[in-house]
Amino acid sequence: MVGSKPIVTFENNGFCMTERPDPCGLVIFGASGDLTSRKLIPAIYQLFNKKFMGSHFYIIGCARTELSTDEFRKKIESALMELNYEPVHIHEFLTHCFYTAGDYHSPDLYKRLKKEIKELNQTFQCRQNVLFYMATPPYLYVPITEGLTKEKLPRETIENRGFRRFVYEKPYGRDLESAIQLDRDLNTFLSEHQIYRIDHYLGKETVQNILMFRFANSIVEPVWNHHYIDHVQITVAESLGVGHRAGYYDQSGQLRDMFQNHMLQLLSLIAIEQPSTFAADQVRDEKVKVLRAIEPFVPCNSQYPCIIRGQYQAGKINGEMVSAYLDEKGTESASQTESYLAARVYINNWRWKEVPFYLRTGKRLKSKVTQIAIVFKSVPHSMFYPLKESDLANNILLLNVQPDEGISLKMQAKMPGTKICMTSVKMEFNYRDILGGKVPEPYERLLLDCMIGDQTLFWRYDGVELAWQLVTPVIDWWKTNPEECPLFYYPAGSQGPIEAENLLKLEGRQWLPI
Ligand code: BG6
User: Fold this and answer.
1) What is the pTM of this model?
2) How much distance in Å is there from the Cα of 209 to the middle of ligand 1?
């Protein structure tokens, strides 16, 4: 039950594989929240504007807040205007939007939804295809799915011949046990092919490009292994603090919020073996193999740590003083929640034998940057006597995920002139140069894939569980041995705790500056 087959066209000097979704309705739970107005609706609007959606679609926003359809439409309109979207088609788009208020625990809501879906499916000729999007807090995932099931809404039967897909936002569980339980619960109502576990990092253009870069270029693969690569650094740094999400974040921390999902996804794409086709399960099989091959973290070891956690204190970012984590509204007064994490990861397979992957992620760091640095080994012999091998800087391939989306390669080159001078130069390409500054939002790609029925960019249950299997022991040690696994502090606006430098220093390496 997937959409049409991809049409291959040649546009802007490149091959494009375009798939159009079948007509469908979208029911968004948590429709009065931030995610819906800031990300989901704008993404759907863009798909509509770019003519991916045609006119056979509808959106039902659903939440506890009492709103009329008119009020919901006004809210959508102002959200789109605020984001400076071209207003040309907004009015037409709004005629496809509806709102239903209700209590997620009340059977009445699902009865009303069923009736509405039936009517709108007819009005907009959506062939019974419905996408249910959970933009709610995770504790509502099971009650909502159960409520829909009681009304038989997930059923994809021969007589309705439509798809019924369910999208779940992270966090998908809080640890291994709760993630397994959530899967068990959802599996009593749904089949795996109906479940889309979203990770918005996978919708970022430059993240999607990792597989293209690795497997559509014949010069990359031969050097992508332990023979040539010294180590890999993956950085996801933010200058923002926890802001108005402190209540949620304080119960979660950087390990659960960023590492267990986004960071491990980036790692698995960098380390993946080549799938034989770009089919969802083949790609996900290979990613799961990477997660399975990660060496488990060893308990806290102050001499040779493999994970460092930190928390920000007051400091200056862009010349402005910002408060300490503990002073954020919503954090507990003596909270030990980490806002920073750095880890050394080994992947136990032939390709990556003894290649360390250094991962770091934190809030209130110097700047917002997400990048992956592939640091190559130095040359085996220097012919430029008296320069030694170690005097020649390593080649570094930098995959910039954000904000300056692009790729660069640091090389050694001769400086022009009569003297023999060597310097590092950069070969680079920037997405802005080819896309005119407009990199599509991740939710556009991901929502389109949900409608098409392509699960390649979504977590599969086994991946989620393996990721939790890796990090759950760490959560447990931190809880039971806080003295042995101390929380280090760093000033806001810095590169993170000094102690995180030891992860690399002990091995004669250093972090690239943020
Ligand atoms: C979310 C986290 O998944 O990703 C947030 O919950 C984080 O804490 C955000 O700020 C970062 O996303 P992006 O796309 O801005 O890098």
Assistant:
1) 0.93
2) 19
DSSP 168-197: EPSP--SSHHHHHHHHHHHHHH--GGGEEE
Give me ligand 1 centre to Cα 376, in Å.
29
For ligand 1, atom 14: residue with the closest CA: 201
Q: Is 205 exposed, middle or buried (0-12, 13-18, 19+ CB in 10 A)?
A: middle
Atom of ligand 1 nearest to the CA of 442: 14
Query: Whose alpha carbon is nearest atom 13 of ligand 1?
Result: 201
Write out the two tokens for 328: 């954020």
Query: Per-residue pLDDT tens for 397-425?
Result: 999 999 988 999 999 998 888 888 888 99
8 Å CB contact between 34 and 135: no
Take atom 8 of ligand 1 and give the residue whose Cα is closest: 257
Greatest alpha-carbon span in the chain: 84
The DSSP 8-state label assigned to residue 262 in this structure reads I
Residues having CB closer than 6 A to ligand 1 are: 238, 257, 370
Residues noted as catalytic? 262
Say if residues 514 and 369 touch (Cβ distance below 8 Å). yes
Ligand 1 centroid distance, CA of 13 (Å): 33
Superfamily of structural domain 7-169:
NAD(P)-binding Rossmann-like Domain (3.40.50.720)
Residue 473, classified by CB atoms within 10 Å of its CB into exposed (0-12), middle (13-18) or buried (19+), is middle
Instruction: Identify the CATH assignment for 205-435+461-505 out of 3.10.310.10, 3.40.50.620, 3.40.30.10, 3.30.360.10.
Output: 3.30.360.10
Angle at 71 between CA 245 and CA 244, to 5 degrees: 10
Would you state the pLDDT for residue 13?
64
The ranges of the chain with pLDDT < 50 are 1-3
Backbone angles phi, psi at 8, to 5 degrees: -95, 125
- Would you list the domain boundaries of the chain? 7-169, 205-435+461-505
Half-sphere exposure of 252 (CA within 13 A, CB side): 20
The helix-helix angle for 69-82 and 41-49 (nearest 10°) equals 80
CA dist., res. 367 & res. 123, Å (int): 49
